[in-house]
Automatic annotation (TrEMBL), chain A:
Domain of life assignment: Bacteria
InterPro entries: LpoB
Span of the signal peptide: 1-21
Record's protein name: Penicillin-binding protein activator LpoB
Keywords: Lipoprotein, Signal
GO biological process per UniProt: peptidoglycan biosynthetic process
TrEMBL record, chain B:
Span of the signal peptide: 1-22
Protein name: Lipoprotein
Keywords linked to the UniProt accession: Signal
Domain of life of the source: Bacteria
Species of origin: Alcanivorax dieselolei (strain DSM 16502 / CGMCC 1.3690 / MCCC 1A00001 / B-5)
Alphabetized InterPro entries for the sequence: DUF1425, YcfL-like_sf
CDD domains reported in the protein's UniProt record: DUF1425 (cd09030)
Pfam families reported in the protein's UniProt record: DUF1425 (PF07233)
Length: 196, 132
């Protein structure tokens, strides 16, 4: 009897252990698979940066009657892990554009834009009345740039990760930093008694 | 038989404990139509422990800026997520896929202010959703 029950239990455990399935989840849900930098951190940072920047009075004043032109330089990844910082700045950029308060120029596509302009101007294939003209692009007034740094501490049972994201808005002409925002994130992983 | 039960019982206890860790969805919705505050709850445990004390709003550069004061009425720490949904005049949700769940940890019997800025100037109404 005992053997039969033990076997049934074993089979049940094996069957559940082998089960594998793929499911769609909520991309905005909290993700805590590991303490490494994850999607929730990216979303929290982007939301905080955009919210802070929008309500900072001098920035609000700048955007009251016009939509300043910005460009995103880059966010330096000073953490020990690989983080796609361009993805963070892309999200921040999208939110700023969609607020209707800012416009952006994209410095990552300058070469391709130049190629297209040269094609329109010099190839002889494009009707000149519709060709985009050289020298008509709008110069960016502000630059967004920043840092992502981390402090990691661990012992036998605990890993603590502290992230700090800093973003700055610099007036290109005057060199003045008009706004600076910070977001701190602390994540701790502790192993339980049974390692579950 | 007793020995067998002694062996199996801890295993079952572990399985039960892991089953209990599944996320407990609770909902507390604060809808602000500009005049009065409506509170909805699906009678979850979280909703019974959490209350919205005050909602303040102002326009900053055409954008709706809100601050909600949440109170943890429970004597222990409350660890939950909240999300703010924004709606325009016609009731359309704004940027529904760009509003993340944000984490909030509140000490027992404490208050916390959550702040958010609308994604664009057309927002006139918001809802606060919470879940564990």
């Amino acid at each position: 009897m005992r053997v039969v029950m033990a076997m049934m239990l074993g089979v049940a455990l094996l069957a559940s252990g082998c089960a594998s399935k793929v499911e769609y989840g909520d991309p905005q849900a909290r993700e805590t698979v590991t303490p490494d930098f994850g999607s929730s951190d990216l979303q929290m940072i982007a939301t905080k940066m955009v919210d802070d920047m929008m309500v900072f009075p001098p920035v609000a004043e700048l955007t009251r009657n016009r939509r300043p032109v910005l460009f995103v330089d880059r966010v330096k990844n000073k953490t020990s892990e690989h983080v796609d910082t361009e993805s963070i700045t892309d999200t921040i950029q999208s939110r700023l554009i969609n607020s209707g308060k800012f416009r952006f120029v994209d410095m990552t596509v300058v070469d391709r834009v130049r190629q297209q302009l040269e094609y329109q101007q010099d190839s002889g294939m494009v009707d000149q009345s519709t060709a985009a003209q050289m020298g008509r692009q709008i110069g960016a007034e502000f630059m967004l740039y920043g840092n992502l740094s981390s402090i990691v501490k661990r012992d036998n049972s605990t890993k603590d990760v502290y992230y700090k994201f800093t973003l700055k808005l610099l007036n290109i002409q005057s060199g003045i930093i008009e706004w600076s925002g910070e977001k701190e994130i602390r994540k701790t992983r502790s192993r339980s008694l049974f390692g579950l | 038989m007793t020995r067998f039960l002694c062996r199996v019982a801890p295993m079952l206890a572990v399985l039960l404990l892991t089953a209990c860790s599944a996320s407990n969805m609770s909902r507390l919705e604060v809808a602000d139509d500009g005049e009065h505050l409506q509170l909805y709850s699906n009678n979850g445990l979280l909703a019974s422990r959490l209350s919205v004390e005050e909602v303040r709003r102002k326009r900053v550069n055409d954008l709706l800026y809100l601050q909600a004061t949440l109170e943890n009425g429970w004597k222990f720490e409350l660890d939950f997520q909240y999300k703010i949904k924004w709606f325009d005049q016609q009731g359309f949700e704004l940027a529904p896929e760009s509003q993340p769940w944000r984490q909030l940890v509140m000490a027992g019997r404490s208050q916390a202010n959550v702040q958010a800025v609308a994604p664009n100037p057309s927002a006139v109404r918001f809802e606060i959703w919470v879940r564990e």
